[in-house]
Amino acid sequence: MDTMAIIMAAGEGRRMLSDKPKVLHEACGRPIIDWVIDAVSPCITACPVVVVGNGAQQVRAHLGTGVQYAFQDKQMGTGHAAMTAAPHLEGRKGYVLVVAGDVPLLKADSLAALCGLAKEGGYAATMLTALMEDPSGYGRVVRSEGGSVAAVVEHRDADAQVMCIKEVNASVYCFEIEAFLRALKSLKNDNDQSEYYLTDCIAILVKEGRKVGALVASDARECMGVNDRAQLAEAVKVLQERIIRRHQLAGVTFIDPQNTCVGCGVSIGRDTVVYPGNVLEGETRIGENCTIYPGSRIKNSVVGNGATIESSVVCGSVVGDGANVGPFAHLRPGTDVGESCRIGNFVEVKKSRIGRASKVSHLTYVGDGIIGEGCNIGCGVVFVNYDGSQKHTTVVEDGAFVGCNANLISPVTVGKNSYIAAGSTITEDVPEDALAVARGRQINKEGWSAKRRMEKRK
Ligand code: UD1
Ligand code: CA
Hints:
Layout: E1 2-9, E2 26-27, E3 30-31, H1 32-40, E4 49-52, H2 56-63, E5 68-71, H3 78-85, E6 94-100, H4 108-121, E7 125-131, E8 140-143, E9 149-153, H5 160-163, E10 167-176, H6 177-185, H7 200-207, E11 212-216, H8 229-248, E12 253-254, E13 261-262, E14 266-268, E15 273-274, E16 279-281, E17 284-286, E18 291-292, E19 297-299, E20 302-303, E21 308-309, E22 313-315, E23 318-319, E24 324-325, E25 330-331, E26 336-337, E27 342-345, E28 348-350, E29 353-354, E30 359-362, E31 365-367, E32 369-371, E33 376-377, E34 382-384, E35 394-396, E36 401-402, E37 407-409, E38 412-414, E39 419-420, E40 425-426, E41 435-436, H9 448-457
Parallel strand pairs: 1-4, 1-6, 4-5, 7-11, 12-15, 13-16, 14-17, 15-18, 16-19, 17-20, 18-21, 19-22, 20-23, 21-24, 22-25, 23-26, 24-27, 25-28, 26-29, 27-30, 28-31, 29-32, 30-33, 32-35, 33-36, 34-37, 35-38, 36-39, 37-40, 39-41
Antiparallel strand pairs: 2-3, 6-10, 7-10, 8-9
The structure holds uridine-diphosphate-N-acetylglucosamine (UD1) and calcium ion.
C-alpha cells in the first residue's frame, strides 16, 4: 500500500506581486516549497508529485530531480491542479496526501496524524483544519448537525452564516486514492471564479456516503497559507521562532530572539551568545562559547570555538578558534583567519589566509594574501593585488612586521621576521630578518616657515 503526495505549486501567486513564483519566495533561508516538501517527506512511500505551471521552469530548476512533476498548463483551480497530477496515481493503492505549496508552517507530525486518522478510521478523506480568530480568505469547514464534516465553502462563495464559521480548511488532505480519483471526475467549475475547487471533493465524498474526517490543528498558525508578503512575514516569524527555540534548547543564548535572524542551515555551539541585529545565514557553523555582538551578517562560513565577531560581514570564510573580528570588518569569500587572530576595524580581507595569532588591526585591505603566523600588519596597509588586468598573490612570512600605510605591490614576498618601515611601497621581495625602507627621505628646511611669515607681512 502506497502513501503518495501531490503538492500544488502551479498558481501564479498574484497577491505577491512578484516576478518570482510564490513557492520560491524564501522563508528563513529556503523557498516556501522546500518547507512543505520537508514536512511531507517522512510520511510518503514514493517521491512527491509537484504540480507546476506558473514559473514552472524556475520551480523545476530549484527542485531538480528529487520529485516528479505534473504540468498544469492553465491554472483552473486547485481541483484542476489535482486532476493534472492524477495520472501519477493510476494503478496505485493506498492514500495520497494533497497539500498546497504555500503552507510552510505545516509540521510532519500533523501529516502523520492525518494519514493515521484516515487509515485507522476508514475515512475516504481526512483534512487538516484550524480555528482562526480571523478566518477571512480561507475556505470554511461546514459541519452537519452531528458535527461531521459536510463541505468546504470558499470565502468568496460564502453567505453571511458561513462567513461566521471560524474553522478553516488548511488545504492539506489525505485521500484514499480510489475515492479521490473518482471524486475528481465529478468536479465542476460552477462557482464565482469558474474554477475547479479541490475543496468540492469533500462534499462529493460525503454525498456518496463516504466518511470524511477532520483533524483540528492544535496550533492554528500551522495552517497559515502564504498569499501575500504580509503573510510571508508572519510565516517567517513563526519559522524563525521555531529555529531559535531549537538552538535555545541546545544551549545557545539569544539576547533578543525577536530581533535575530537565523537561517535553517545554521548550527551554533553551546554557550555561544548571539546579540540582536545579527543575520546568520546559509550553511554556517558557529562554534561553542562564541560571542556574536550586534550587527553582523555571517553567511556560508565556519566560526571556531571562543571567537568574537562584532558588527562585521563574514561571507564564505573560516574564522579560527579564539579569533576576534570587527567591529566593521569585511571577510569576503575564500578567507581563512587562523586561531587567535585579530581582524580589526575597517579591515577588508578577500581570498586570503592569515596564520595563527596574526593581527590586522585597523583600516587595511588584504587581497589574495598569504600571511604567516604571528605577523603584525599595521594600520592602513594595502595589499596591491590587482594590476588592472590580473590578480597577484602577496606572501607575508611568519613573524613579519609590516609598518603602517605600507603598500605591498604583488606579486611580492615579505620574508620571515622582516620589518617594513611605515609608508613604504614594497615592489621587491624582502629577505628574511631584513628591514625594508622604501620611501623618500625626510628633509627639514630650518627656518623655512618663519621666513615665509616675514615675506607675507611685507
Ligand atoms: C485554498 C483553498 C481554501 C483554503 C486555503 C488554505 C481551494 C479552492 N481553496 O485557497 O479552502 O482555506 O487554500 O490556504 O482549494 N494552485 C495550483 N493550480 C491552480 C490553483 C492553485 O497549483 O490552478 C496551487 C497554488 O500554487 C497554491 C495552492 O494551489 O500553492 C493553493 O492555491 P491558492 O490560490 O493559494 O488557494 P487559496 O485561495 O489560498
Ligand atoms: Ca493559499
